[in-house]
TrEMBL record:
This is ubiquitinyl hydrolase 1. PROSITE patterns: OTU. Residues 143-282 form the OTU domain. It comes from the Eukaryota. Keywords: Hydrolase, Protease, Thiol protease, Ubl conjugation pathway. GO terms for molecular function: cysteine-type deubiquitinase activity. The keyword Hydrolase applies. It comes from Pieris brassicae (White butterfly).
Length: 290
């Protein structure tokens, strides 16, 4: 290997060593940022964008440095490149894996920017305005939202959480669905007048009523006002639903004793439709910081 090739190899080796060190230092910095933001939800959201930018900036700078080294070596030796030089030149080209990482980092950075822009646009949208109104009403009761997943079981999961949180009662979503199904069947005269066919708007036939009840316990069909009433009757306890518009609360089962199960109703939380969440009691530190 000629002296020029040795110099080129040394430059490349030195650069690669420095790049590895820079990547390790960045990962250490990212871990420190994540640790600092562990209990700060707002900071966690901002951190996703910041980390993506830090990684993309480092990848971009290192890529430019490698490209500049390639150009310098090509310009100096363009008339003298032999087979060995060509192989070395190929070695310092960006690998396919590196290109994929660069592309992925760029896409992540763009996505983070889009999320940040969307969140800014949503500040005055119906979802955010609804959430602010519900949180304000919860604050008066020293409560906060406990989020449950949006999968058709949200009402039952919210009640399941309330029973555990407020009454130390363990019951599954499937058990709640089965109880509601049976209660509505057994009290058909009380519920049937409020059930209509969504296409004809006529009261359900006996067959349609049976199908309605069966779907409650065998599918993830969404629960509403009638199911809340049935849950209150089955559990023999009051249920309070806090919402943003209309009456501040909807009360069911006030004839029963004990503290109510308190859930929240959201019209605009998800694009798929309405949603229920549970609630949690605020600790004193959270109350003071609000």
């Amino acid at each position: 290997m000629s002296n020029d090739n040795i110099d080129e190899y040394n430059l490349l080796t030195s650069m690669e060593s420095r790049h590895r060190k820079e990547r390790k230092e960045l990962q250490s910095k990212i871990q420190g940022l994540k640790k600092a933001a562990k209990n700060d939800k707002t900071r966690k959201k901002e951190l996703t964008t910041e980390i993506a930018k830090l990684e993309a900036d480092l990848e971009s700078r290192q890529t430019i440095e490698i490209e500049e080294l390639k150009r310098d070596n090509i310009n100096e030796d363009s008339s003298l490149l032999d087979d060995e030089n060509l192989r070395q030149h190929e070695d310092i080209k960006l690998s396919k894996a590196q290109k994929r990482r660069n592309k992925k980092n760029q896409e992540e950075q763009e996505r983070a920017e889009q999320i940040k822009l969307q969140e800014k646009e949503n500040q005055h949208g119906p979802r955010n305005l609804e959430m602010q109104a519900i949180l304000a009403r919860l604050k008066e009761r020293h409560l906060n939202i406990f989020t449950v997943s949006s999968d058709g079981d949200c009402l039952y999961k919210a009640i399941e959480h309330q029973l555990t949180h407020r009454r130390n009662i363990r019951v599954t979503v499937d058990e709640l669905r089965k109880n509601v199904c049976n209660h509505i069947k057994e009290n058909k005269d009380d519920f049937l007048p409020f059930l209509t066919n969504p296409n004809t708007f006529e009261m359900l036939t006996n067959e349609e009523f049976e199908d309605y009840c069966e779907n409650i316990c065998s599918t993830k069909v969404w629960g509403g006002q009638l199911e809340i009433r049935a849950l209150s009757n089955c559990l023999k306890c009051p249920i309070t639903v806090i919402q943003a518009t209309g009456p501040e609360t909807i009360e069911q089962g006030n004839e029963y004793e004990g503290p109510p199960l308190i859930i929240t109703y959201h019209r605009h939380m998800y694009s798929l439709g309405e949603h229920y969440n549970s609630t949690m009691t605020l600790v004193q530190d959270e109350i003071d910081n609000q």
